[in-house]
């Protein structure tokens, strides 16, 4: 027995040593490769192990070594198994070690490995004295029969090869396969021989036959760049001028963080319907996976902006309002709103100098506006001539220093901001952002000017109050406060000039 094994080992040398080395290499490669490729490792170990088992079997059976002019086809089969193990190990080393950082398509990997199998088999059989061309000729008829039987499968295989050669999309690209009625949107995971796999937005794995992809209309959202334009349609009442509607919508969308600055968003008057004008808001994003979430945020921002601008999103004309609006109900709602406005004005120190009649007049001139979470109500440096009273919700007051914003205060119901712009027309000194849904009353210059002109001495009282507030704000900013007397005189002059009242009357 040992002598026969030694004879077999010596006759096949160095192939048994190569088989043992392959077993060691493949064992070390198994934990290093991707889980999907471990089947190849098992196949390589099986082929190399099968070769060693066959060599051992030849020795146990005392199978005689072939003469020089003879061929032992069992030994040829064993050599083929060993050569296939070499091909598998070389493929794993090339694609999973050397080219690991480059994501190679699976179909290309299979193609290279298949060609290597064919060349290896042809070489071994030719060295064994077999006429390979005769075998090929004899298999033509069989190949034709199999081709007819498997034409759908072969069509998918050829389509997969075409997709790899043309490279219209790659692994990781977001694509839409289909039409507008039946879209299939997802990220390409892998291009296989028979099918292409994609991960949909819902996280599902979908397999699409390659032949179906080559016949379908494909939209690649990742090419030539990741920028993609979204459309959001909206309806606004006819009575609102189109130019103003487009301005309000674009301004609302432009401030959202996920909307690209270039290309800039726009708004088109799309069509006239029976009960409203239809507009199309178009904006650009980079993350196609979250387009549904972005559309929702854009619609919310547009709703808040239209509500603040007093623009109506109409109900369909067939809807009927069945709420009973009698005189008592209407009057009760008006009284409740009037009380809230008077209460809000009475909390502002700059308005406490007004008597009841002027408070009443001013309350009737207030505008009610609504802001959504994260919306910028005032922006530092922008012009302004209005004051905001917080009716509900909370806002954050931020100051920009060297390009960075620092939050210095949070204001809630009953508090106010923007008084310097109302009284002096100065640019906004801070940025104010809504922390949640916020309702505000707005006091503008036109509403307050009549009152100041009727009672010019209010300018002096208001300047004293504003001076103290400016000193407090300077402390919060860690700046040196301006002396109160100098600031009071300066503010009195600004208020008088802004509201067009004489300096002597203002000092009154």
The amount of helix comes to 40-55%
Shape: elongated
Query: What class would the helix/strand composition place it in?
Result: alpha+beta
CA distance, first residue to last residue: 127 Å
**What is the C-alpha radius of gyration, as a whole number of Å?**
40 Å
Main features:
alpha+beta; 18 helices; five-stranded antiparallel β-sheet; 508 residues; four-stranded antiparallel β-sheet
How would you characterize this protein structure?
This protein has 508 residues and is α+β, with helices and mostly antiparallel strands. The chain contains 18 helices and 16 strands. The strands form 4 sheets. A 5-stranded antiparallel beta sheet has the order 4-3-2-1-5. The chain has a 4-stranded antiparallel beta sheet with strand order 9-16-11-14. A 4-stranded antiparallel beta sheet has the order 10-15-12-13, with no helix packed on it. Strand 7 and strand 8 form a beta hairpin. The longest helix has 26 residues, at 73-98. It starts with a helix and ends with a helix.
């Amino acid at each position: 027995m040992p002598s026969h094994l030694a004879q077999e080992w010596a006759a096949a040398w160095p192939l048994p040593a190569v088989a043992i080395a392959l077993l060691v290499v493949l064992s070390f490669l198994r934990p290093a490769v991707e889980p999907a490729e471990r089947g190849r490792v098992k196949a390589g170990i099986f082929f190399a192990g099968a070769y060693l088992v066959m060599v051992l079997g030849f020795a146990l059976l005392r199978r005689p070594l072939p003469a020089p002019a003879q061929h032992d086809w069992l030994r040829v089969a064993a050599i083929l198994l060993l050569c296939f193990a070499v091909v598998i190990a070389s493929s794993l080393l090339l694609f999973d070690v050397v080219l690991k950082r480059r994501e190679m398509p699976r179909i290309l990997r299979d193609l290279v490995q298949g060609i290597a199998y064919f060349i290896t088999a042809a070489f071994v059989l030719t060295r064994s004295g077999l006429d390979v061309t005769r075998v090929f000729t004899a298999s033509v008829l069989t190949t034709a029969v199999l081709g007819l039987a498997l034409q759908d499968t072969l069509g998918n295989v050829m389509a997969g090869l075409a997709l790899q050669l043309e490279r219209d999309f790659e692994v990781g690209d977001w694509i839409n396969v289909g039409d507008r009625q039946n879209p299939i949107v997802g990220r390409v995971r892998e291009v296989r021989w028979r099918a292409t796999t994609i991960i949909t937005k819902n996280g599902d794995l979908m397999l699409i036959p390659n032949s179906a992809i080559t016949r379908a209309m494909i939209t690649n959202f990742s090419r030539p760049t990741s920028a993609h334009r979204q459309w959001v349609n909206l309806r606004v009442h006819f009575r609102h001028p189109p130019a103003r509607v487009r301005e309000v919508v674009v301004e609302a969308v432009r401030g959202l963080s996920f909307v690209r600055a270039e290309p800039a968003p726009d708004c088109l008057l799309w069509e006239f319907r029976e009960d409203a004008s239809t507009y199309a808001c178009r904006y650009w994003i980079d993350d196609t996976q979250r387009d549904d979430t972005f559309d929702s945020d854009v619609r919310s921002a547009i709703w808040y902006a239209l509500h603040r601008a007093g623009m109506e999103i109409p109900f369909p004309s067939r809807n009927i309002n069945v709420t009973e609006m009698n005189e008592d109900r209407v009057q009760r709602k008006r009284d409740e709103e009037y009380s809230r406005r008077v209460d809000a004005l009475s909390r502002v120190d700059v308005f406490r100098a007004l008597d009841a009649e002027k408070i009443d007049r001013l309350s009737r001139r207030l505008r009610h506006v609504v802001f959504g979470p994260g919306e910028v109500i005032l922006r530092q440096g922008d012009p302004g001539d209005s004051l905001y009273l917080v009716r509900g919700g909370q806002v954050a007051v931020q100051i920009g220093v060297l390009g960075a914003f620092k939050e210095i205060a949070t204001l809630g119901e009953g508090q106010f901001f923007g008084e310097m712009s109302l009284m002096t027309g100065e640019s906004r000194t801070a940025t104010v952002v809504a922390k949640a849904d916020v309702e505000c009353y707005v006091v503008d210059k036109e509403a307050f000017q009549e009152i100041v002109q009727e009672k010019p001495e209010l300018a002096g009282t208001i300047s004293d109050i504003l001076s103290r507030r400016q000193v407090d704000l300077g402390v919060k900013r860690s700046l040196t406060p301006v002396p109160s007397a100098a600031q009071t005189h300066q503010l009195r002059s600004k208020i008088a000039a802004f509201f067009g009242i004489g300096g002597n009357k203002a000092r009154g």
